[in-house]
Write a structure and sequence with these properties.
Helices cover 33% and strands 23% of the residues. It has eleven helices and ten strands. The chain has two domains: 138 residues, Rossmann fold (3-Layer(aba) Sandwich); 113 residues, Dihydrodipicolinate Reductase, domain 2. 45% of the residues are buried.
Length: 274
């Protein structure tokens, strides 16, 4: 079958702010060659209600069965459920698109298994920017990569590392540096906050050499990420300020759009960007 005629069956694990937004757009035919055939969520009754008004309401399946129904599986779940959807997708040779990319660091054997089964693990850019440029620079000699993340204090409240260290971000009047270390350490301490750091590290010089700063900043209303790259081909400085989604203020509106763009790359006759 030619690429122009290729169609994909899509399953979405998780119907929160990101998963439901993607599901709605696919149901309207926003991505030609991509059809929504299954979804999964912790509350199956609510999931059925959420898709009941779709043009073609998909069945609500268990996580483990999504890969049986689909060619592409998008994961939009809390990180503790990552393996439940990732492992079956890889075993069945599917295209697996994780949003909880930080959890992938604890399941890196899946990458080698994907090589054996013919599966592909495709990480969307998500709430970050410039991963195409970072990947290109990584083909040469990359000296350093730094990510500076600034979030409204409420967006970091309750993070495991803050709780462990007894750090309060309530009532801040000026920015507070709450973490400085590697991307691997950052995602361990902030599993729901800095998946972008892991995506950046996988595109560049790895999770142990990628440096991360996390700031609780009462002066910002948007999640802001600044990427600084030093390499033998180019020095990059990139900043993104993410507008919160209406459904979940902790999630950037661009994240769901990034998933749609990644899905479109699978079927589009013209692809721009490396």
């Amino acid at each position: 079958m030619s690429q122009a005629a290729q169609t994909y069956r899509l399953a979405i694990a998780g119907l929160g702010a990101i998963g439901l937004a993607v599901a709605r757009r696919i149901d309207t035919g926003a991505v030609p060659g991509m059809s929504l055939v299954a979804v999964s969520a912790r509350d199956r009754s609510r999931a059925r209600d959420a898709v009941a008004g779709f043009k073609s309401p998909p069945p609500v399946l268990d996580l483990a069965h999504l890969a049986d129904a689909a060619d592409v599986v998008v994961e939009c779940l809390p990180s503790q459920h990552f393996a439940e959807v990732a492992a079956p997708a890889v075993e069945r040779g599917r295209i697996f698109m994780p949003l909880s990319v930080g959890a992938l660091l604890n399941h890196m054997p899946l990458v080698e298994r994907a090589r054996q089964t013919g599966a592909r693990i495709v990480v969307p850019t998500g709430a970050l920017l410039g991963l195409d440029a970072v990947r290109a620079a990584a083909e040469g000699n990359m000296r350093s990569v730094t990510l500076e993340t600034r979030k409204p204090p409420a967006g970091l409240a309750g993070a495991p590392l803050l709780v462990q260290r007894g750090i309060s971000v309530e009532g801040l009047e000026k920015p507070l540096l709450v973490f400085e270390g590697s991307a691997r350490e950052a995602i361990a301490g902030f599993p729901a906050n800095v998946n972008v750091a892991v995506a950046l590290s996988l595109a560049g010089i790895g999770p142990d050499r990628t440096r991360v700063e996390i700031w609780a900043d009462p002066g910002v209303t948007r999640n802001t990420h600044k990427v600084i790259v030093k390499s033998d081909s180019s020095d990059l400085t990139m900043t993104i300020e993410n507008i919160p989604s209406r459904e979940n203020p902790r999630t950037g509106a661009i994240t769901a759009l990034s998933v749609l763009a990644a899905l479109r790359r699978l079927t589009a006759p013209l692809v721009v960007g490396s």
